[in-house]
Specification:
23% strand; Spore Coat Polysaccharide Biosynthesis Protein SpsA, Chain A; alpha/beta; glycosyltransferase activity; 39% helix; eight-stranded mixed beta sheet; transferase; glycosyltransferase; EC 2.4.-.-; Nucleotide-diphossugar_trans
């Protein structure tokens, strides 16, 4: 018989052991602690496994053989937790995200005594012609969103039962958008909580402005949004997709560094999405194409 646990914190990490250690300090510093902390190690080669072995008394670990990406890492963690415990909520986390001590308690108090069926995030967006606009709230409480960042969000296990787990074929980018799309399709909550006591310091180490990271992120962004569009096709969605990608292409052609590479790989991403090419197909470090077996 599985033991019931209310909240399982799922952290996905890859080759950032020092950042992971800092993240865990913030998890430990929460006013209320998650019942389980589960680190999904995405094939790290920097000493992450050795570190996690020294923490086995209070941290569970899933060590994957290769880097499968953020969404697939979350899926692996959720699957592991559901196989071993009866979980009510998953608190989803990226390793370079540092929540202050109020975040989990604020999220939990908002759902206390209620049955949250869906996802409650700290940062949410509404889409205007396909372009995400941050929700800026004047009042405290929950506002409906088109999608939320899954990083630091509280996801109900009942929602996972209904809509399934995160997609495992996107590798990087858009996993939160796609999952929230499915939640809304099932009529479940996609909400963002406005609480002035909450604060999350996100380092965004993979998305520094005007760096090489913008090249591979642009590729996966354009490709994955096309894959999602094909799975959930609407004419409005098609128009919004090309409107949004057109703006990005114009910006990449005329502004910032690596203009040729950013434009080239975004166009390749659109093409790969049209042809249904998924998974890890571009190595973020070398920018070389990865063959699909």
């Amino acid at each position: 018989m599985k033991v019931s646990k209310q909240i399982a914190c799922i952290i996905v990490t890859f080759n950032r052991v020092s950042i992971l250690q800092e993240n865990l300090k913030f998890i430990q510093g929460q006013e209320i602690n998650p019942d389980i902390i589960l680190v999904v190690n995405n094939g790290s080669t920097d000493g992450t496994i050795a570190f996690l072995q020294t923490q086995e008394s209070w941290i569970y670990a899933v060590n994957l053989p290769v880097n499968v990406g953020y969404g697939a890492g979350l899926a692996a963690g959720i699957d592991y937790a559901r196989e071993n415990w009866e979980i009510e909520y998953f608190w989803l986390m990226d390793d370079d995200s540092f929540p202050n001590s109020k975040v989990l308690s604020s999220l939990k108090s908002e759902v206390e005594g209620k049955r949250l069926d869906g996802i409650l995030g700290v940062t949410g967006f509404r889409l205007e012609r396909g372009i995400p606009r941050p929700i800026r709230q004047a009042d405290q409480g929950i506002s409906n969103a088109d999608f939320v960042l899954v990083d630091n969000a509280l996801l109900s296990a009942s929602a996972v039962t209904q809509v399934g787990n995160f997609r495992t074929d996107l590798f990087m980018m858009c996993e939160d958008y796609e999952y929230c799309f499915r939640l809304r399709k099932y009529g479940l909550l996609v909400g963002v909580l406005n609480d002035p006591l909450m604060e999350v310091n996100r380092k965004h180490l993979g998305s520094q402005s005007n760096s090489k990271n913008l090249i591979w992120r642009g590729y996966y962004h354009s490709r994955n949004l096309m894959l999602i569009l094909k799975d959930h096709f609407t004419l409005k969605g098609l128009i919004n997709y090309f409107y949004r990608q057109g703006k990005y292409l114009i910006h990449s052609m005329f502004f910032g560094v690596n203009r040729w590479s950013r434009t080239k790989y975004r166009l390749i991403g659109i093409w790969d999405g049209i042809w249904g090419i998924s998974g890890k197909t571009l190595d973020p470090l070398s920018l070389k194409r990865v063959s699909r077996n």
